[in-house]
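We both want to read discrete structure tokens more fluently, so let's practise on a single case. Would you supply a protein for us yourself, any chain you care to pick? Would you write everything just below, so we can both look at the same thing?
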Amino acid sequence: MFWGLIMEANKRYTQVVDKPFHISHAAMDTATGDNEPCQVMVVVDNKNFLVCTLQKNKTVQMPLDLYFKTGENISFLTNGKCNIHLTGYVDPEFDDEDGEEEAEEEEEVEEEEKPVPTKNKRKLEAAKAGKKGGS
């Protein structure tokens, strides 16, 4: 499932993670700000981490590989005059609990419906015929 956050300039976004998610990309909204660099910061355990620096006419997008797990208290913020779009996805294993149950049920059904291979079926029929004839 898609995850995204549009961060406005110089604002802080804080949350306690309820479903694990991955941030894959940061992109600058070039319609905002000026030619000065914009820093994307992540705060984890009360420590500020610079994730990337974006600037018009230089680097307006940056691939990321950030994973946040359930229960983490995190914040995102920008330093600069531009809006930044963070995009990624919710961890598929935690995306839809009902979907997981359905997938497990489908696996069980598939196991029950496995056809008997032809070779074994012929051997089984021959063995049954031998038992009937010998009785």
